[in-house]
Design a protein that fits this description.
It is a single chain. This protein is α+β, with helices and mostly antiparallel strands. It contains 6 helices and 8 strands. Strands 1-2-3-4-5-6-7-8 form an 8-stranded antiparallel β-sheet, sandwiched between helices.
Length: 183
């Protein structure tokens, strides 16, 4: 009987010490992850060389920062930006102003990492990028009504201001207007 008590006490001690809290932190992928995805892409009329991006008919861009590992922001050197989202055989792009870039950052902060791709694709797939349908942005996001209203306020502050332009999907054969599936 004593043996079982000692075994039970040893088991309890081992179990309690093995269940320590860890200091592990979860981080988002860094720029290298996104740039690697861009480097491996095969899109017609698109050339990626390190942090430089050239799109026929649009211009040259320099990488600025990743968007939660699913996309990236490129600077055109003239005060404008290009948001890119590689999605398999397609590369989604949309040109934005500084204010548009800030709005995208704020929207992604609301919808979260797991819904970033769907939110960006909602902007890219908008028929009129200056009149964005908020329902497309939040269609797959688990947001509260309050968060949806905040996104509506952000978007309505941009509508008609030409902060988003020329959304397009570039496939292996070049630019086209087909939409990227919204996961």
């Amino acid at each position: 009987m004593k043996f079982y008590r000692y075994a039970l006490m040893i088991f309890i001690l081992i179990a309690s010490f093995s269940c320590k809290k860890t200091t592990l932190t979860v981080t988002s992928p860094g720029p290298d992850f996104f740039l690697g995805k861009m480097q491996n892409g095969n899109w017609g009329g698109v050339k990626v060389d390190g942090d430089k991006l050239t799109i026929d008919g649009k211009g040259d861009y320099t990488f600025e920062n990743p968007i939660l590992g699913v996309g990236g922001v490129y600077n055109d050197g003239k005060g404008g930006y290009l948001i890119t989202v590689p999605a398999g055989d397609n590369l989604g792009t949309v040109e934005v102003t500084e204010k548009g870039k800030e709005a995208v950052d704020e929207i992604l902060g609301i919808v979260g990492d797991e819904n970033a791709l769907g939110a960006i694709n909602g902007i890219i797939n908008s028929k009129d990028p200056n009149n964005i349908n908020v329902d497309e942005i939040v269609s797959n996001a688990d947001v509260t009504e309050e968060e949806k209203k905040r996104i509506e306020e952000i978007v309505s502050g941009l509508n008609g201001g030409n902060h988003f332009k020329n959304p397009e999907t570039i496939g292996p054969n070049g630019p086209n207007k087909s939409s990227i599936s919204n996961p």
